[in-house]
Amino acid sequence: MENAAARVRDHLEPLISGDHAPVLEPASAIESAPRLRGNAAGWAREAALLLERRSRRASGQDVHLPGHISASTLVDLGEDPAG
């Protein structure tokens, strides 16, 4: 446990002392807020994609299918998908 804590402290030391690239880039003339850099930018993109996927699923409609469909019913559906 102590070894793991020491490794975490060793990893965090450069971040605390300021020897790392900043997480935020200053805002440009067209942007109103600063942009994320490095890992933080990747995490933000991933979070945005996951939220988008979640919203698409939420807007979908559940379709309940029967446990069994006969071959003739499948053929009929193929000929007239609208039902």
Quick rundown:
With about 80 residues, this protein is mostly helical.
Q: Uncertain runs with pLDDT below 50, 5 residues or more?
A: none
Strand order of the largest sheet: 1-2
Q: What's the number of extended β-strand segments?
A: 2
Biggest sheet character: 2 strands, antiparallel
Structural class, by secondary structure, is mainly alpha
Put simply, the count of helices is 3
The level of helicity is 55-70%
What's the SSE pattern?
HEEHH
Question: Whole-Å distance between the termini?
Answer: 64 Å
Q: How large is the share of residues in beta strands?
A: under 5%
Radius of gyration: 26 Å
Shape: elongated
**Average of the residue pLDDT scores:** 75
